[in-house]
Design a protein that fits this description.
Number of domains: 1
Strand content: 25-35%
CATH topology: 2,3-Dihydroxybiphenyl 1,2-Dioxygenase, domain 1
CATH architecture: Roll
Number of strands: 19
Shape: globular
CATH superfamily: 2,3-Dihydroxybiphenyl 1,2-Dioxygenase, domain 1
Radius of gyration: 19 Å
Distance between the termini: 43 Å
Number of helices: 5
Helix content: 10-25%
Order of helices and strands: EEHEEEEHEEEEHEEEEHEEEEHE
C-alpha cells in the first residue's frame, strides 16, 4: 500500500505558528447526566468535584471532560439537535500566544473572555472553540514492563491482569463538518495547525503546532452538518488498551470498533460507543511527529483505516 503523494507542505510559509499545545477540555451538552457519568467512571478517568447538574472528569495530565445540561449557560448555543459536543478548549503555552490568537480571530468574529482569561469564539463550522492558558501537567514517561527479546524487564513477575489502565492524555477529538476545506482552512491558516495525513475531499488529520501527536483534531466531511465522531485517550501500551476494553465489556458497554491498529497514526485502538453520541477510544503507541514530517495524501480504503482489527468476545457483566 502506497500513499498517493507527498507534495503538500505541512504549513504554508504565510500561515501563523501559534503555540497551541493540545486539548485542554471538551464540553458537551446532554439530556441525561447519570449514564455518561457511569461510562466515564468505568473508563477510569478521575472525577473532579462538581454539582448534581454537571459531571467533570480528568486525565492524568489534567485535560478535562465536562458534561452539562443542554441548556447550561456555560455552553455556547447548539448548532443542531444532534451534536452534543458544544465547545473544544485548546491549551495555549503563554499569554503572548493567547493574545496573538485573540488578535487573529477578533478580525472577523465576536470573542468572549471569561473571568479566568479563556477566550471563547465559534469556528467556521459553527462549533464553539476556546483557548486557555495551559493547565496541562507534564507526565513522567510510562514504563511498561514488557519482555523484549534479549531485553527482559519483567523478571519473576507475572502480568497483573486486574490492573486497570491509567488514562494519561486526551489525545484528539474527531468531528463531522459540512464543508471540509473551509474547516481545514480555519485551523491551518488561522490557528497554525498542520496536516499530518489527509483523504482529499473526505477527511484530514491535524496537529497543533505545539504538539507532537500525529493528530489532535480529525475533521470528516459530512454534508448533513456538524456532529461529534469520537474522543481519544492515551494509555501506556497495547496491554492497557486491551485490559481497558475488556473491563468496559465486562461492565456492559458496547464495543464499537476494534481492537486493532490504525494505519495512519500507527496507534493501537479500541473504540466503545458513548451513551449520548459518537464513541470513545483507548489508544497507545501513536506516531510522534516533528517539523520534518511531510503531509501525506491517500485514497480512502478500509486498509487505510486499520492495518488489522479483531473482535474480542464480550464478557458477561459480573
Amino acid at each position: 500500500m502506497e500513499h498517493a503523494s507527498r507534495d503538500r507542505e505541512c504549513v504554508e510559509k504565510d500561515e501563523p505558528h501559534m503555540k497551541i499545545l493540545g486539548l485542554q477540555e471538551l464540553r458537551f451538552g446532554v439530556s441525561d447526566i447519570e449514564t455518561p457519568r457511569l461510562f466515564l467512571r468505568d473508563w477510569n478517568l478521575e472525577p473532579i468535584a462538581g454539582s448534581n447538574s454537571e459531571i467533570r472528569y480528568t486525565t492524568l495530565d489534567a485535560a478535562e471532560i465536562r458534561l452539562l445540561p443542554e441548556d447550561s449557560q456555560l455552553l455556547p448555543p447548539a448548532v443542531n439537535s444532534e451534536c452534543k459536543l458544544r465547545e473544544i478548549i485548546w491549551a495555549v503555552d503563554s499569554q503572548a500566544e493567547l493574545d496573538k490568537i485573540a488578535a487573529e480571530l477578533s478580525s472577523d468574529r465576536r470573542l468572549i473572555q471569561s473571568a479566568d482569561g479563556t477566550i471563547h469564539a465559534v469556528d467556521d463550522s459553527g462549533l464553539g472553540v476556546a483557548f486557555a492558558l495551559s493547565a496541562l501537567r507534564p507526565l513522567a514517561p510510562a514504563q511498561p514492563l514488557v519482555n523484549f527479546p534479549g531485553q527482559p524487564r519483567r523478571k519473576n513477575t507475572p502480568v497483573d491482569f486486574t490492573q486497570r489502565p491509567q488514562v494519561r492524555h486526551l489525545g484528539h477529538v474527531a468531528i463531522f463538518v459540512p464543508d471540509l476545506q473551509k474547516a481545514q482552512d480555519f485551523y491551518e491558516k488561522r490557528l497554525g495547525f498542520r496536516a499530518s495525513d489527509l483523504y482529499p475531499g473526505r477527511g484530514v488529520f491535524l496537529r497543533a503546532a505545539g504538539s507532537h501527536d500525529h493528530h489532535n483534531l480529525f475533521l470528516l466531511q459530512r454534508p448533513k452538518g456538524l456532529g461529534f465522531h469520537h474522543m481519544s485517550f492515551e494509555v501506556a501500551d497495547f496491554h492497557e488498551v486491551m485490559m481497558g476494553g475488556r473491563y468496559m465489556q465486562k461492565e456492559g458497554w458496547k464495543s464499537h470498533f476494534g481492537p486493532g491498529r490504525h494505519t495512519l497514526g500507527s496507534n493501537y485502538f479500541w473504540y466503545f460507543a458513548l451513551p449520548f453520541e459518537g464513541s470513545c477510544e483507548y489508544y497507545s503507541d501513536m506516531d510522534y511527529l516533528d517539523d520534518d514530517w511531510e503531509t501525506r495524501s491517500w485514497d480512502y480504503s478500509p486498509d487505510i483505516v486499520a492495518a488489522w482489527t479483531a473482535e474480542v468476545a464480550a464478557t458477561a457483566n459480573q
